[in-house]
Amino acid sequence: MKIVLRLASLTPLILSPLALASENVPDHYGYIGGHASYYTFYDNDVIGNGTDGLDDQPFYGGQLGWRFNRNWSVQGWYEEVDGDAESKYNSGRRLDMKNYFASIRYHLDDYSLLGFEPYAGINAGEQLIENARVSGADENDELMTGVELGLQRAFFKHVIFDLGTRHAYSQDREYWEGQIYAGLNLAFGVSNDDKDNAKQERVPAEPAAVVSGDGDGDGVADDVDQCPDSASSAVVDDEGCQVYKMQTRTQTGEIYFEFDRAAVQGQFSDDVRQAADRMNAGDEGLIRVEGHTDSIGPADYNQTLSERRAQAVKDKLINDYSVDASKVSTEGFGESRPVADNSTAEGRAQNRRADIIVDIKERVPEFK
């Protein structure tokens, strides 16, 4: 078990060629999952008050938690070992042990470590210790407090891998213990904050000239005003009604493909849906899908592969989200437009993509 968990700690390095430039853990989600951990007991006071101690021991359990904003989450944690905790000095003592912890964690949402999101936390709980070989023996109930550090990464949007270490201190018998853990969580209620912080400059409107008999102050006399509730700062026509202009707004998103594949992976379904929703929210809209590849393989093959990737996105827009086929165009660029260095695995992963470009035409009211 100890070897397994140590290998698990290398998972970020194993998966790093597949990681993009930033973390992919959602900002809000609940989760339930299971874990395995390996405990190290640093001294003898766990059971023996300096005369006997516990050997290092694997535990297994489950967890339930909620990430309530970009940076903070809470978690409840349970694990146990049933009669398998043994004396470090072969005294023959065997123990049942149960651990309960409640944690609050701070997530470094703006940082990524090899594609994993780091976090740190504090926790408190209890450790129940009972002699497995003596029926009705007294049970030790230890109050534990500790700290934890870890990494998280999401797979297929709803599966979150959790790898970390916790060190806890007994307030009763005054001993330290440490653990490393690996957990797998099923997420629900997944959502993200709007990270678009673009600020639009507002130009104050000049006050409209006051016209006698103009109740709404838009510059058109009440006896000919067909829209008597227009804003005084609005540009209006001869009948006093708001004038609109058509404005085009462009938004771009990307999805990524596996090597030599043109199928849209499940974790990018929401990105395709959001492109459809953005277009449908405007008065008019067009979607352009541009396919790309990395530099591995013949250029002619990559050109065809890029066209297939663009077509796969178009098919998903039409079949899954009812987008009008006449409003979606596709084009493949092969390996000719890389956005990252093709000499690295991480760079090639970013070049295996399709750009979804949504041009939305909106009616925007004009103001003075």
Automatic annotation (TrEMBL):
PROSITE patterns: OMPA_1, OMPA_2. GO terms for molecular function: porin activity. Residues 329-348 are annotated as: Disordered. It is a multi-pass membrane protein. It comes from the Bacteria. Residues 244-362 form the OmpA-like domain. GO terms for biological process: monoatomic ion transport. Gene3D superfamilies: 2.40.160.20, OmpA-like domain. It is found in: Cell outer membrane. This is Outer membrane protein OprF. It comes from Alcanivorax hongdengensis A-11-3. The lineage of its organism: Bacteria, Pseudomonadati, Pseudomonadota, Gammaproteobacteria, Oceanospirillales.
